[in-house]
Prior knowledge:
The chain is an alpha/beta fold. The chain has helices at residues 8-50, 155-158, 176-183, 215-251, 255-258, and strands at 54-55, 74-81, 87-93, 99-109, 114-123, 143-150, 170-171, 191-196. The chain has a 5-stranded mixed beta barrel with strand order 2-4-5-8-6.
Amino acid sequence: MYRFLLSRQWVILTLVALLLIPTMIRLGFWQMHRYEERSARNQLVADALNAKPVPVEKLTSPGHTVTTGQRYRTVTAVGHFDTDREVVVRRRVNADEEVGFHVLTPFVLTDGKVLLVNRGWIPADGPSQTAFPKVPAPPSGRITVTGRLMPDETTEASGIKNLKGLPDRQVMLINSEQEARRLDARVLGGYIAQTAPEPKGDTPELIGRPGDENAPLNYAYAIQWWLFAAGVPLGWVILARREARERAEAAAPDETETAPAPV
């Protein structure tokens, strides 16, 4: 009755099913690993955001590489903004996906070291983005700034090419080593995304808090792949039984031909 399973078509179908089952199981485990990784990153970000603010020099120094555990930590710094050596970072978008600039202003600490402060997003003056835009001035004099500590941007990590020959006072990446050479100063590693004091008139637009990665989606994908893996043998059995039934019905004699003729 099931001799058809030895046919070429069914042998190929069976082999494909046998390959799909472990593949889908492995994809489920891969999605579960992604869920665990994203959940761990979300927890790391939450811990950093909820930690008490500390002076910036407790976490970074000139030449320091900001670690994963230090990223998003709230830090404070006392000093003054140096707007004469301010630059803008090209091709940055705001929450509405509008393309403009990030404003990067050196902040000179009381001991002479420099902290890079990303003051937020501003629109471009026209479509060309070649002219230096109008940038609202920050508070003058000695102040305390607060922000989230961020690691240096690199092409490898961000995918942004560090183009050469840019218009005056424009850069592609926020990188403390690059800025240390430009400013000829001791620049703390990394930079901060300013959160306070808030700008007057809401310009520049402060950079929003980082959002959580959608870890539950990976969990759902893992369950989905495992359900698919369980469905493959079930589907194979259903197909095999249906074909066996159809073959049996086709082989059975036609009742209309075998029934005796009426007298």
